[in-house]
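Reviewers of the previous submission asked for a worked example of the structure-prediction workflow described in the proposal, so we include one complete record here. The input consisted solely of the amino acid sequence. No template or homolog information was supplied to the procedure at any stage.
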Amino acid sequence: MTVTITRDIDKMDQEECKEQQMEHSQNLENGDKILEPKEENETEQNEIDSKNKMSQGEEEEEDKDKEQRMEGIDISDSTNRVLESQEINETERRIIKGDTIGETLYSAKWILKTLISLTNVYENGWNESMEKDLCILWDMSQEKDIVKYLLENDFFKMAEFTLKISQETRLTEIVVGIIGNMCCETEALESLVNTNELATLVLSLISSDDPETVIQVLRVFQAALWDVQKNLDSPWLKKIKECATVGEAITFILKNSLVDDLMIPTIEIIYLISEMELPNDNYLLDVIFDVDQLISALSESMIKIIDQENNPHTNSQLKNIENWYSIIFNTIKKELLKLSDDENNEDYQNMNTVLLKILKPYTMLSNLMLSDDRGLLCIQQCIRMVYFFQKNELIPNLGLIQTIIKIMLNLKSAASTEHEFEDSDHEYFKELHTYSTNYWVEVLKIFNKDQIVKVLQRFDDRDLDAIIELTKTLSKISKESMGGFFQACIEVKAYRT
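From that input alone, the workflow returned the following structure tokens.
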């Protein structure tokens, strides 16, 4: 392998030497022609010399102009501009292109020399110069033509050798990172899974102690899952199922990490797995994970991730919330998770806590008003999950119900004409307000008077009056439920006086 690459470089050097020799020969021939004697009288000779000087000056000016054009400088106004392709002749194009790869401007010779350094890392040791070169190659590997070139030069064989001997976490991270970039191309992804030992080795690194390496492994894993999603006959499915450490490693990450760059792809991968149904009514989630342990770790992780009550959620938090919601519903729908509202059921109690932490920022009207579509969808999904629990005779945490009611009041305010929004936003607030009031109707149907008292007693007089006024407008409530609600309100107000 090393010999082959060396010969390629030697061949490039020989071709460059031939080009230089040809140019040198042409220069000599031109020089001989200039030095040929001519029979001219002195006057004519002076005129010719003068013209030659002018011509030479013009040529120098033209050369200077061409040189500046090659640098992308407009001579006319001395301002930078893009070099137009029609301004470059074929000779200049060949010189510029040199040994570049495909449509890129990256040097094949440089890449081959870098790959040789990689194969010699065991003998020469890891150093800062090699790290710099490999990082450059890592960036290059985002290009399709570079991926193809690396495949043609057996990069995966070099990567396998390197990962087996590497004792440098940075080296391992970079090599896996290059593989992750390459796997964005279908050809490379297929080639990797067919390089049996390397594919297994990369997936096993998900148990690495180095978070940066794990992040790169997750990128490869994610690409493999996307391939399985498109085609259940993908060889990646078998490879993933054979990797016994994946489930335990991901559960461990959930329990022990709070780094966004690690948590987002980890939860995304769990979501992708939870979506996959295998033949014979089997589920990949159940094959890879101990589902009870996974859901427990996932909820505990979400409790730590959502660490603020007064500020809107960040984009990364909203992404994790969306995936968490989908994972929980998928596991319940596939009957992989059994819940009860028993106080000892830790999974259910943790889910209530997660829902409460998700919704808490929206109890502040200012946060609600600043929410985009993702934030409002997040509210709707949480209310839907709480409603699902209630329909299945799982009583939610009282604090969670109170939070939804407070948001309902804020939505009414946001949907009113007192606030200025775009028409689409205004309609979305109105729809979400209707959705939240429908939930409140269901609460009134299920809860008895004493339970409603417990819900209402935490609201101040202003909010309590707003709840009463809103409830009066609801037509879907039976007389019995409405009567129980008003009795509860009377008790709450009497207790305060």
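The first helix runs from residue 2 to 35. We consider this example representative of the routine output the project will generate in years two and three.
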